[in-house]
Amino acid sequence: MTTFLNIFWLGTKELRSFLRDYTLLGLVIYSFSFAIIAQSQSSTQEVVNASVGIVDEDHSQLSGHIARAFLPPYFQTPEPVQERDIVPLMNAGRYTFILDIPPYFERDVLAGRRPALQLNVDATAMIQAGLGATYATQIISTEIERFITQTDTVPAPLINLVVRIAFNPNAQTAWFNSVMGILNSITMLAIVLAGAAVVREREHGTMDHLLVMPVTPFEIAMSKIWANSLVILIATGLSCYFVVRGVLQVPIAGSIPLFLFGSALYLYFTTAIGIYLGTVARSMPQLGLLFLLVFLPLMLLSGSNTPLESMPDWLAKIMRFSPAAHFVSFSQAILYRGAGFEVVWRDFVFVAFAGAVFLVLAMLRFRRMVAAVQ
């Protein structure tokens, strides 16, 4: 009972220290509010306002129909371009697409000669280029078919393909980026806050004060873990309810309390990493450098940006042993697909086991640091 009381009161000391550290407090508030909004709305994977130039060497009724078929919000209003300016304009990045309609194009279409159109694509804008080229091809094909048949009714294809998009019917990037932003913030702040708590004790000289008290290194480390985990869980819950659901209007299909429970298990892993890095770093700048070496590969390869299946096979097999990959997996299952505990319990068990292993390693390192200080 004494151990639990010591951990509790030391944790309250950590909370008071955190509330007085306005830099870290501001970082937490920003990471779970404005950063989530900016991440969800500033980048998009859909084709939006793609710039289009058209070289109309035919000046026919058909070429005019094709030019007028490129409409917002997918494309900007096409601008006329000279054939000699295609290469300079593409090199300058002025247009994402330039369509070259050759002379006598309408005549050749009506004669059944299957003339060629040239669509120049700036693939440095990768998302726009890939999807936009497909959209442009469909637009051109539809307009040519309408012109030939002289009707707005396009013949039905031989095969009726029915596409049903589950969990994000309009394929909005904001629905994905907002939740992934929360997951990234959880990992980032758990490592930073736990590591900063250890470094702050050393820089302020309060570690010596703790060591003369009747407390053990285990109690000191666990107090930092539960206090910083509590801060992150509160910020995560508020962000899910008020930022994602409220401001961004992103529907969350599953149980937020279940997600928070899984996040609490994951925080044992990330805060243990923070404690370990805090024992290695001698100052906050050193902690920042070590954080970058750990956080970037941990999240970039966790499946939050691209699925594990799209990675090289050997790398995907390695990352399946990463708690971050399982954290992303059960978070997406709960928040996007409405999965219950019976679906994600295996991920929970793996994350809890990995967190316990890293927690033991962090405790051993923390004990050695305390022994060196004494």
List strands and helices in order, with pairings:
Layout: H1 2-20, H2 22-31, H3 34-42, E1 52-56, H4 61-68, E2 79-80, H5 86-91, E3 97-101, H6 105-110, E4 118-121, H7 126-149, H8 173-204, H9 206-211, H10 217-247, H11 256-280, H12 284-300, H13 313-319, H14 323-335, H15 341-373
Parallel strand pairs: 1-2, 1-3
Antiparallel strand pairs: 3-4
Helix pairs in contact: 1-10, 2-8, 3-8, 8-10, 8-11, 8-12, 8-14, 10-11, 11-14, 11-15, 14-15
Would you give an account of this structure?
With 374 residues, the chain is mainly alpha-helical. The longest helix has 33 residues. Helices cover 66% and strands 4% of the residues. Helix 10 packs across helix 11. The model has no long low-confidence stretch (mean pLDDT 87). The protein has a four-stranded mixed beta sheet, covered by helices on one side. The protein has two domains: 244 residues, no CATH class; 98 residues, abc type-2 transporter like fold. Strand 1, helix 4 and strand 2 form a beta-alpha-beta unit. The protein has 15 helices and four strands.
Write out key terms for the chains shown.
374 residues, mainly alpha, abc type-2 transporter like fold, 4 strands
Structure described in brief:
With 374 residues, this protein is mainly α.
Query: What overall geometry do the principal axes of the alpha carbons give?
Result: elongated
Uncertain runs with pLDDT below 50, 5 residues or more?
Answer: none
Task: Let me know the number of strands.
Answer: 4
Tell me the series of helices and strands, N- to C-terminal. Answer: HHHEHEHEHEHHHHHHHHH
What spatial order of strands do you see in the largest sheet? 2-1-3-4
> Oligomerization state of this entry?
single chain
C-alpha end-to-end distance: 26 Å
The radius of gyration is: 28 Å
- Alpha-beta content class: mainly alpha
Output the number of helix runs: 15
